[in-house]
């Protein structure tokens, strides 16, 4: 129901920085290629490092190493990594909803893969 009502709710939002936009943009916030395009309008592609959050959270030492290398800094590791974003989603998702979302996001994900040069495999899930 929330996804079905998104477009109507977003039309009523004053702008993208509004609380209304933040809490009603369920599908829109997942259009990562669009979000990246805003940054690419301001900065050259070689100045942006894009990391997949799932990989970063499961292998933070690799993400940190990539980040330091990208910034031209020497390798470094903290004594330990604190775990954040360790949430779980309850209730599951119906197969129908998953199929609908996969179909919706497939072309948007492909645009992202083309921009970053990496296929995250989200269209295969």
Attribute tags:
single chain; 125 residues; mainly alpha; 6 helices; 49% helix; 0% strand; globular
Provide an overview of this structure.
The two termini are 23 Å apart. By secondary structure, the protein is mainly alpha-helical. It has helices at 6-12, 19-24, 32-40, 53-58, 60-70, 95-116. Helix 3 (32-40) runs parallel beside helix 6 (95-116).
Summarize the entry for a quick read:
By secondary structure, the chain is an all-alpha fold. The chain has six helices and no strands. The radius of gyration is 17 Å and the shape is globular.
Number of helical elements: 6
The SS-based structural class is mainly alpha
First-residue to last-residue Cα separation: 23 Å
Using only C-alpha atoms, the radius of gyration works out to 17 Å
Following the backbone from N to C, one meets helices and strands in this order, namely: HHHHHH
What is the total tally of β strands? 0
The biggest sheet amounts to: none
Summed over residues and divided by their number, the pLDDT gives a mean of 86
How helix-rich are the residues, as a percent range?
A: 40-55%
Low-confidence stretches: none
The geometry reads as globular
**Strand portion, in percent?**
under 5%
